[in-house]
Design a protein that fits this description.
Elements: H1 2-11, H2 22-28, H3 31-51, H4 53-64, H5 70-85, E1 89-90, H6 91-105, E2 109-113, H7 117-120, E3 141-142, E4 148-149, E5 153-155, H8 160-173, E6 177-183, H9 187-200, E7 205-209, H10 227-232, E8 238-240, H11 245-257, E9 263-266, E10 271-272, E11 297-300, E12 313-317, H12 321-334, E13 339-343, H13 347-351, H14 355-361, E14 368-371, E15 384-388, H15 399-405, H16 410-422
Helix pairs in contact: 3-4, 5-6, 5-11, 6-11, 8-9, 12-16
Amino acid sequence: AEEIALVREQLGWSEPPFVVPQDIYAAWDAKAAGEAAESQWEQRFAAYRAAHPELALELERRMRGELPRVFTQTAVDTVIAAHEKAETVASRKASQLALEAFTAALPEMLGGSADLTGSNLTNTKSTASLRFDVQGQVAQTPDANGTPHGGRHINYGVREFGMAAIMNGVALHGGYIPYGGTFLTFSDYSRNAIRMAALMKLRVVHVFTHDSIGLGEDGPTHQSIEHAASLRLIPNLDVWRPADTAETAVAWAVALQNRSMPTALLLSRQGISYAPKGHCAAAPDAAGLDAINKGAYVLAEPTEVGLRKKAQAVIIATGSEVQLALKAQELLAARKIAVRVVSMPSTTTFDRQPVAYKKQVLPAGLPRIAVEMGVTDGWWKYGCAAVVGIDTYGESAPAPVLFKHFGFTPENVAVTVQKVLARR
C-alpha cells in the first residue's frame, strides 16, 4: 500500500481507485465519432451502389462471407475432374491443381507463403504476387484474363507467425478468404495464431506441405512426426491429410465452406498414386466420392482384390499411407485374409459424424489397424488393436530407405494385421 501511495504521489494522481475523471472519459468516448463515421460511410456506399450496382452487390456478398453461386459447380467439377484424370502427383501439387479452379472462381481468395511458394505451390495463374512500385503504390499486374489488379498472393518472407497472424486480421476484416503455406514442421511457429483463429472461428486455410519422413534427406529437423496429432488436438480446427487429387479437392471445398472454422491441409512432398473409388455413391453409403467430405470412408472391400468373403479386419490410413494399406490388402488377399481399407483424410471431420455413419465405416467386432507416419497416440481412441507409426524422430536418408527403416512397407503392414488376427 505504501508503494502504491508513492506511485500515485509521483504521478500526481489523486482520484479514488476505479474512478475515471470525466475529461479523460470524454476524450476516450468514441460513440459520437463512430456514429458520424458510420453515417458518412453509408452515404458514400449509397452513392457507390448507385454508380456501380453490380460491384456493390459483389462487395456486400464478400463482406457477408457468402461464397459465389459458381462455387458449388466449381467444386463438383474439380472433384470429378480429379477422379477421372486419376493423376499420380504429390498432394501439394494436387492442392495447386484444386487452387487453380477455386482461385479463378473466387476472387476473394488471398494466398501467400512464408518464403516457400515454390515448395508449397500456393500460387496460381489467377493470383499474381502483390507488389509495390518505387513510389510505394500497389503495382498493377494482369491476371490470367489480362485484367490488371493489385495481386492476390503475398510473399510473407520467413515469418510464419507473422503470416498466420496477418491472415487472422484479414479474415476478421472480412471480404477475403486468406490462405498461406509453409512446411508442416514449421507450423509450430504459427501455433498461437492458429489457435486464435480456431478460438475466434475464422475462415483461414493453412497449407502445410512436406508432411512426413517422405521428404527424405532434409532429416529430422524438417520431418513432421508429432505435428499432425498436435494440430488435431486444437478445438475447432479442421485438419485434412488427403491421399490423392480427389481427396485434396474435397478438402479444399470443405475448407472454403467452413465459415466458422480454420482448416489445416497436410500435404506430401512425394508423388502419390490415385486411389480408385466409386464415382458417385448414394448419400447414405460410406464409400465413393460423395463420402470423402465425411472425413473417412470405405475405400476398398475384400471383393475389390478378388476375395469373396467378409472382412476380418480394417486398415485405417491417411495421406500417402493409403497406398501402403491398399498394397497390404492385396498381399493379405493372396494369403486368404480379407480386410477392408478405410481412408481417413480428416479425423476431426469424421469425429463429428453421427454414430450410425461411424459404425458403417468401422464396424463393431472387426479389429482395426491404423497406418500413419507420425506419433501413434491419437489412433488408440478408435479402438485400434495396432498402429504402424513413428514414436521417435526421423532420419536423413532417401524416402524409400526411410520407409523401409520405419516399417512403412506393404509387407510390414500385412504382417501387423496377421499378428493382430493371431491374437484373437
